[in-house]
UniProtKB/TrEMBL annotation:
It comes from the Bacteria. The lineage of its organism: Bacteria, Bacillati, Bacillota, Bacilli, Bacillales. Pfam families: DUF6133 (PF19629). The chain crosses the membrane at residues 38-61. Keywords: Membrane, Transmembrane, Transmembrane helix. This is Uncharacterized protein.
Amino acid sequence: MKKWMKAVPKKFDHMGSNAKIVLNNQSGEGFVDTAVKILMAVVIGALVLGGLYLLFQGTILPTLTQRIKEMFNYKG
């Protein structure tokens, strides 16, 4: 048991130095950068979905509805 207790501080000595390195890191990836990226992704996604909705509603669905009606009203 005493051997294990002596080994614990040696085993975790590097954690203090790693914590100092992480806390002193000033690379620049912050909360504002991440928030801007998320906001851009949401806005671009909304624009793409809005465009697809208009395309389907105005162009694709009316012709598809017309073709389906013609297919079921087949008199031949």
